[in-house]
Write a structure and sequence with these properties.
The complex is a heterodimer. Chain A is an all-alpha fold. Chain A is built from five helices and no strands.
């Protein structure tokens, strides 16, 4: 949409790249989650360790998986939403430049969906203990 | 899932073209521009005013005595260039959609050529008169046929409109039927085909397009009825020409087929709320708008509404129709200016 709208209204080119940057922000949420999950992983031995530790490790494993899936799915939804709203913003900006900021506010709300996903993921994963460390 | 949320995938194939088209749309002349044009005294003034709009220097290279037909040709050329650009860049299903838009021009061109042949006009005279959006490859070859039946077998059967001929006309009919009846039968087949194509596309495209096409179908039914009063067209023949994809189908069409004069047509329109308003207040007096003008206005409204939705093909159809209306407006104003007959110069249809 930015390409198409930019043919007749070249002024929209740089401002509308903000929409694309919003999409990149959700990718960063994914990286944050990956780092947090990575920190929690450590080795355990199902036979030699005590029952408590084995149970905790399995619990941690499931929690990490759930957190990863939560963040992943909410990022996909958020990215799609930001893309659709951003396309509308680019076309509206091409017609009338006062509309851009107003639609950008909507886009911020859309981007917050990804942030909520990250928060839920962190809540799921806080306090996990895997292995003997 | 892709069918339920077409917004997700539309931009992949068609986003650039939609953005480009909306840019074109913002170049359509506004009320201020029309007010400027109406105040022109000569065609040179008109050309000057058009230079400051999106049209730019499109008349720059024309030789000095500007005529209305030159302006008309150049306007059409501009629309054709934009349309061809869109058509060259698009993929399915948009390319089929744009092809459907050109079929109506093709039908007009074919009828023009057939009429010309029947009156023994040389082919070179006729080709420039055809609308460029409706040109097809076999146009040059039309002169080899001397009767419409030969024409069909040799040339038309390869065009994309051939199925419309099959649906409704047989070879003998082509020779006997009045040319206008052929045109209306073809157009009916085309409208119904386009309507079912849009309905299959579904989603927002179907919403925007089916409404506009239904209105077009009903409008044609009304116009055919009104024009056929006083001619030799029998009622059964008339009923065969009504397109069936509009709101009037089936009961309104039956009533229209039985109508004998303008008042009965009006009664049929009164049954349907939105057509009642169009018929009220229309007439041929000096201050009133004619029925045709009101139909044009309503069409412009539908087309403007289709721009309210994103991620659908209706905007392409709407742009072509609005550009046509704009061309008609400019030519009307140009004619009034050229003939210095300014009484009705204000009866153009404002778009934005």
């Amino acid at each position: 949409s930015i390409l198409g709208g930019g043919v007749k209204a070249p002024r929209i080119k740089t401002k509308n790249l903000i929409s694309i940057i919003f999409c990149e922000a959700v990718a960063i949420y994914g990286i944050i989650m990956a780092i947090i999950i990575g920190q929690g992983i450590s080795a355990f031995d199902a036979e030699k360790d005590t029952d408590q530790i084995v149970r905790d490790s399995y619990d941690a494993g499931f929690r990490m998986f759930a957190a990863g899936v939560t963040v992943g799915v909410s990022n996909v939804a958020c990215g799609i939403t930001v893309g659709i709203v951003g396309s509308g913003a680019a076309l509206a900006d091409a017609q009338n430049s006062t509309l851009f900021v107003k639609i950008l506010i909507l886009e911020i709300f859309a981007s917050v969906i990804g942030l909520f996903g990250l928060i839920v993921g962190i809540l799921q994963i806080v306090g996990v203990k895997m292995g003997t460390k | 899932m892709m069918n339920y949320m077409p917004e997700m995938t539309f931009n992949v194939d068609h986003g650039y073209l939609e953005g480009l088209l909306r840019g074109f749309k913002s170049g359509i002349l506004r009320q201020n521009d029309y007010l400027n044009l109406v105040q022109c005294e000569t065609l040179e003034d008109l050309k000057l005013h058009l230079q400051s709009t999106d049209y730019g220097n499109f008349l720059a290279n024309e030789p000095s005595p500007l005529t209305v037909s030159v302006i008309d040709d150049k306007l059409k050329e501009k629309l054709v260039v934009e349309f061809q650009h869109l058509r060259n860049q698009c993929v399915e299903p948009l390319s089929t959609f744009l092809d459907y838009i050109t079929y109506s021009y093709m039908i007009d061109n074919i009828i023009l050529l057939i009429t010309g042949i029947l009156h023994q006009r040389p082919i070179n005279e006729l080709i420039p008169k055809c609308h460029p959006l409706g040109s097809f490859e076999q146009m040059e070859a039309i002169h080899i046929a001397s009767t419409p039946a030969e024409l069909y077998n040799a040339v038309l059967v390869d065009t994309p409109i051939a199925p419309y001929f099959l649906d409704c006309i047989s070879e003998q009919d082509l020779d006997e039927m009045n040319i206008e009846i052929i045109r209306n039968t073809l157009y009916k087949a085309y409208l119904e085909d386009f309507h079912s194509f849009c309905r299959e596309l579904g989603g927002a495209t179907a919403e925007a397009m089916c409404e506009a096409l239904a209105f077009e179908a009903d409008r044609r039914a009304f116009i055919i009825t009104i024009n056929s009063f006083g001619t030799e067209l029998t009622k059964e023949d008339r009923a065969k020409l009504y397109p069936r994809c509009g709101d009037l189908y089936p009961y309104g069409l039956q009533l229209l087929a039985k109508a004998d004069d303008y008042d009965q047509v009006r009664q049929v329109a009164d049954i349907y709320g939105h057509y009642k308003e169009l018929f009220e207040g229309s007439g041929t007096g000096p201050g009133e708008k004619t029925l045709e003008d009101k139909f044009f206005e309503q069409e412009v409204n539908f087309m403007k509404n289709s721009f309210m939705q994103q991620f659908q093909f209706g905007v392409f159809y709407a742009y072509v129709k609005l550009k046509e209306q704009e061309n008609r407006n400019i030519i009307w104003i140009a004619e009034c200016v050229a003939q210095r007959h300014r009484a009705k110069i204000d009866s153009y249809i404002p778009i934005f």
